[in-house]
């Protein structure tokens, strides 16, 4: 008969021990192996031996944390955040050739992608940096590019910032496309590149705004100005006298306050140094008060 030690604590077994190398007896607070060897100290109630790490049960994966920076380990060190999900720490990239932080594929390269959210005079530029294979990097590029094309144009300063972001993202795409086909473990999940940028909302909206704005400018530049009636043109060269809020034409040989030098369809159409006098048909005479 023998007393033996189990991982959960001391238990009494009543059985024949046919392998003497696993038989132990408790004597005077010490554990002695029946076949000799070093004594193992023990307390009165339990052995002073902790279970080896291989017998420790792995902790459950932490809850998903979308804003967790890629490359972080969980508090217990057993999980690693790859940018999209928690994976066992043993799957974390080791030093050596760069591997994709999402799927572990090679070859991979570090890229920096940005997007702009512009709101009139305010705006926010967000940045994503990471090591990606061609597939995962292209997916991130298309997502960021579509976002910045959709939201980056609607500010005074950020309109020009967004231009730089667009060209910067295109440069990062060129770097990704120089990578070879990704090599990853079969069945490993990766980011699907999805539809090209020109088939996404950001590009479609930007193209529509550019088309409408460009067309308006072209039409305005090529449309000839509306001619003034002959009766309005007859005012040019006449002198005018100011009385209260009204102007009236007078003989230039007498006293006068100015001279009609041009016509305009709106008051803002007259030069800033001239006075605008509205005619009966809605057009304006531009009066140079220095003459």
Write up what this structure looks like.
The structure is a single chain. The chain has 291 residues and is an alpha+beta fold. It is 22% helix and 25% strand. The chain has four helices and 14 strands. Strands 11-10-12-14-13 form a five-stranded antiparallel β-sheet, with no helix packed on it. A hairpin with a 2-residue loop joins strand 3 and strand 4. It starts with a strand and ends with a strand. The model is unreliable at 1-56 (pLDDT under 50).
Contiguous runs where pLDDT drops below 50 for at least 5 residues: 1-56
Order of strands across the main sheet? 11-10-12-14-13
Straight-line N-to-C gap: 130 Å
Average pLDDT for all residues: 78
Query: Nearest-angstrom radius of gyration?
Result: 41 Å
* N-to-C SSE string, H for helix and E for strand: EEEEEEEEEHHHHEEEEE
Total strands: 14
Note the main sheet. 5 strands, antiparallel
Judging from the principal axes of the Cα atoms, what is the shape? rod-shaped
Set down the secondary structure blueprint:
Layout: E1 2-6, E2 9-13, E3 24-27, E4 30-33, E5 40-41, E6 79-81, E7 86-88, E8 109-119, E9 122-132, H1 134-151, H2 158-177, H3 201-222, H4 230-233, E10 239-243, E11 246-250, E12 258-264, E13 275-278, E14 284-288
Antiparallel strand pairs: 1-2, 3-4, 4-5, 6-7, 8-9, 10-11, 10-12, 12-14, 13-14
């Amino acid at each position: 008969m023998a007393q033996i030690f189990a991982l959960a604590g001391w238990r009494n077994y009543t059985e024949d021990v046919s392998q003497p190398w696993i038989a132990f007896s408790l004597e005077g607070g010490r554990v002695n192996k029946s076949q000799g060897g070093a004594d193992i100290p023990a307390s009165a109630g339990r052995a002073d031996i902790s279970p080896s790490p291989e017998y420790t049960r792995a902790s459950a994966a932490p809850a998903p944390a979308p804003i967790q920076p890629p490359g972080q380990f969980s508090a217990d060190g057993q999980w690693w955040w790859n940018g999209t999900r928690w994976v066992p720490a043993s799957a974390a990239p080791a030093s050596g050739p760069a591997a994709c932080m999402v799927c572990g594929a090679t070859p991979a390269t570090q890229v920096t992608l940005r997007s702009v959210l512009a709101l009139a005079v305010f705006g926010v530029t967000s940045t994503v940096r990471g090591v990606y294979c061609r597939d995962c990097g292209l997916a991130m590029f298309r997502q960021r590019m579509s976002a910045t094309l959709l939201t980056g144009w609607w500010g005074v300063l950020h309109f020009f910032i967004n231009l730089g972001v667009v060209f910067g993202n295109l440069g990062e795409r060129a770097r990704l496309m120089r990578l070879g086909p990704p090599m990853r473990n079969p069945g490993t999940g990766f980011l699907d590149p999805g539809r090209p940028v020109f088939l996404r909302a950001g590009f479609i909206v930007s193209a529509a705004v550019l088309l409408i704005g460009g067309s308006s400018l072209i039409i305005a530049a090529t449309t000839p100005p509306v001619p003034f009636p002959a009766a309005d043109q007859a005012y040019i060269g006449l002198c005018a006298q100011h009385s209260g809020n009204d102007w009236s034409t007078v003989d230039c040989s007498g006293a006068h306050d100015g001279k009609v030098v041009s016509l305009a369809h709106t008051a803002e159409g007259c030069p800033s140094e001239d006075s605008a006098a509205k005619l009966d048909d809605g057009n304006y005479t531009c009066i140079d008060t220095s003459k």
